[in-house]
Amino acid sequence: MDFFDLIFNVGPAIQVMMKMEYIPKESDFLELTPEQYMQYFKSNADTGEKLFALLPPNHEVAYDDIGAHDIPIVTGKEKLSMLNASKVIDDYCKSAKYPLPNDEAKLRFAAARLPDVFSKGTKFENAAPLNI
Fold first, then answer.
1. Res 51: pLDDT
2. How far apart are the C-alpha atoms of 28 and 129, rounded to whole Å?
3. What is the DSSP string of the chain?
4. pLDDT tens digits along 11-24
5. Largest CB tally within 10 Å, which of 51, 99, 123, 129?
6. For the chain, what is the mean pLDDT?
7. What is the pTM of this model?
8. 3-state secondary structure of 58
């Protein structure tokens, strides 16, 4: 992945992960049910894409209650971008000389190696050494 791909394709997803303070996995995304689609379209435009609920890391929300909670809804394109960003973060973490026990440690490690634009305004911003 080149610098421009990092900045423009997966960069926004990395910023979201830094703000959420966790790295989503495929299992964290659930496609909306037909009823949830209908509820979503009452207040949002139809993008023509599949829509997914991005569940919190603890998954304490029941699938049927997604609309009742403040759970982010993402498009299929945004989901792919977040999964690609997760891979980028995992790739950065492979160079760690010690085990990174959780998402917070992985995000802090990645923030220290990425330009500060990715972690600005998050708890990881002081770990970022490169200013752009």
1. 96
2. 30
3. --HHHIIIIIHHHHHHHHHHTS---GGGEEEPPHHHHHHHHTTS---SS-EEEE--TT--S-GGGGGGS---EEEHHHHHHHHHHHHHHHHHHTT-SS---SHHHHHHHHHTTSBGGGTTTSTTGGG--B--
4. 999 999 999 999 99
5. 51
6. 85
7. 0.83
8. coil
